[in-house]
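--- STAGE predict ---
source: upstream dedup step, 1 unique chain passed
mode: sequence only
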Amino acid sequence: MIKAAVLTISDKGSRGEREDKSGEVIKEKLRLIKAEVVTYEIVPDERDIISEKLRSFAESANLILTTGGTGVSPRDVTPEATKDVIERELPGFSEAMRAESFKVTPRSIGSRAVSGMYKDTLIINLPGSPKAVAECLGVVLDAIPHVIEVAKGKVSDCGKDVHHRHHNHTH
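--- STAGE serialize ---
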């Protein structure tokens, strides 16, 4: 079972000045992989607060999705806060999301989102806009359960599918 935490990073959202539509999109998409949202919070764009939340969320969640703070404005510090926490980076998630988003809007190349593991918890930075969140999660959603299973030590043979394909090959 995937236990998910959603962390929205928004100065305005944390002050109650903006509705968190991106967080709602994440919760909706997580239903598709039958993930249970165990924690959800909105915090300001403050590096220390974000990294502290990521560490505390990891105590009860094996998946943390953040939304917001991944651009190039001076207040965008989500990638730095995430790098303060993760022990192993998983660039494939962020690269796949950027590549796919780039087809929709060239501006997505400015995303600095990172992804990685903290202990056995997968952390993925998502953009701030609801539309971009839906697009990006659509790209990586199916890969999430497998990565979490492997991280828990439940799946040992990652290459199993590939291995079987090679066996059907005649020389």
